[in-house]
Amino acid sequence: MRWPRMRSRTLRILRAAERPPTPWKNGGGLTREVIVHPSGSDLTRFDWRVSLAEIRAPGPFSSFPGIDRRMAVLEGRLSLSIGEGAGIIATPETPPLRFPGEAAVFAEPCGGPVTDLNIMTRRGRFDSQLTFWTAREPRELNAHAGATLILALSDLVVGCPTGPLSLSSLDAVLIEGESHCAIAPRSGAATFWLVEIHASSSLA
Q1: Is the domain 10-15+126-199 a CATH 3.90.79.10 member?
Q2: What is the rounded CA–CA span in Å between residue 49 and residue 176?
Q3: 98-141 per-position pLDDT tens digit
């Protein structure tokens, strides 16, 4: 297979096995940070953050004033109430949810632990897009965001300057700057979430 050459200022591989779990204060789950910007920022100083959470018990989400959130369920079924809105059941088939970080959110797993993907951006500075992709054959990706993250949900291959890069489920690749690459399954279909982080229009 001939792979198109990836052109990018920065490429980082983020392996799932290298993410230590952090228990929630209420004991209801675990969080694994995928990437945070600026690097090393704590929960009060980040501009944007991507993480995976395992929700094991009913409880409220932490409040993040001034932060916009996007969330997608990767595994399990989750009962959610957000602010004054009607409750919903979120599953892997549910489109990504978006809500302000200061909203009152209560979550309850339905029938077992739930794994979800969380994107948080500081309002007025950055915004995000979250898109689900499937590829049964090599599929080209033209990234134009300031930062683009590919989070694998299955075994797949990403074309890069040094040759094909293999990712297993929940491994990720961070691309900074414009890039052109191809993504293909190792077998069957390649499935992944594409996270795009943009500077807000007020900063552009």
Answers
A1: no
A2: 14
A3: 999 999 999 999 999 999 999 999 999 999 999 999 999 988 88
Q: How far is CA 157 from the centre of its chain?
A: 18
**DSSP per-residue string spanning the chain:** -PPPPP--SEEEEE-GGG---EE-TTSSEEEEEEEEESTT--TTT-SEEEEEEEE-S-EEPPP-TTEEEEEEEEES-EEEEETTSPPEEE-TTSPPEEEETTS-EEEEESSS-EEEEEEEEETTTEEEEEEEEEESS-EEEEE-SSEEEEEESS-EEE--TTS-EEE-TT-EEEEES-EEEEEEESSS-EEEEEEEEEE-TTT-
Distance, in Å, from the CA atom of 2 to the CA atom of 61, rounded to the nearest integer, reads: 46
Kindly report, as residue ranges, where domains of CATH 2.60.120.10 are found in the chain.
10-15+126-199, 19-122
What's this model's pTM, rounded to 2 decimal places?
0.90
Give the position of tokens 């599929």.
139
Choose among 76, 74, 77, 101: nearest CA to 87: 77
N residues, the chain: 204
> pLDDT digit string (tens) for 19-42?
999 988 667 789 999 999 999 999
Q: What is the CATH number of domain 19-122?
A: 2.60.120.10
